Amino acid sequence: MAELESDFKIIYVEESYFKSFHSTLTNVAAEGIYLEMIEPPSLEKVSFFQKKLIDNKLPGYYALSGNQVVGWIDIFPKEFAHHQHRASLGMGILKEHRGKGLGSRLIEKALEHVRTVPGIEKVELTVYTSNAPAIKLYKKFGFKNIGINHKYRKVNGQYFDALSMELFI
CB under 8 Å, gap of 24 or more: what pairs does 34-39 form? Predict the structure, then answer.
């Protein structure tokens, strides 16, 4: 029986799920066409980043199917002080759980949260132009195109163009 959107739970990032999140990140990265990385950082580095979200009360959410993380989203301010009015959105969903409304639920929750974070005025993201479903999803939530970075990435001799998008909040 296929899972319904209501079969999934969206929760704030939680340390007890870091290992499951790392596994999901590993699987999405291994697809090689959705994330910047093809291999994720170590569990230790991923956990450190997730703890920073929690410690700073920043938007970070997991989509759960039972006790397994099947998707995630995070919005993190830029590193330099003069860029901290901008934040970057990152997300991913396991292949078998795409098209079930999880992306919308994750973005809705994260954007609601980021609007309460002092100083953040704009959310930015980069998406490969070949990822039409993601582009459609981001536009649904008001993200606007900034421009295309041609030959942004090269993997196994194949180039990928990337679309930069922004949302003023």
Answer: 34/92, 34/128, 34/131, 34/134, 35/90, 35/92, 36/126, 36/153, 38/155
The pLDDT tens digits of the residues spanning 52-78 come to 999 999 999 999 999 999 999 999 998
* 5-124: CATH class: alpha beta
Tell whether pTM > 0.85. yes
Rg from Cα positions in the chain = 15
Strand-pair category, 122-128 with 86-93: parallel
- What are the boundaries of each domain within the chain? 5-124
59 CB-contact burial (10 Å; exposed 0-12 / middle 13-18 / buried 19+): buried
Query: pLDDT tens digits, residue range 34-44?
Result: 888 888 899 99
Token pair 């606007």 is at which residue?
A: 144
* In the block, residue with structure tokens 């180039």: 159
DSSP 8-state class, residue 169: -
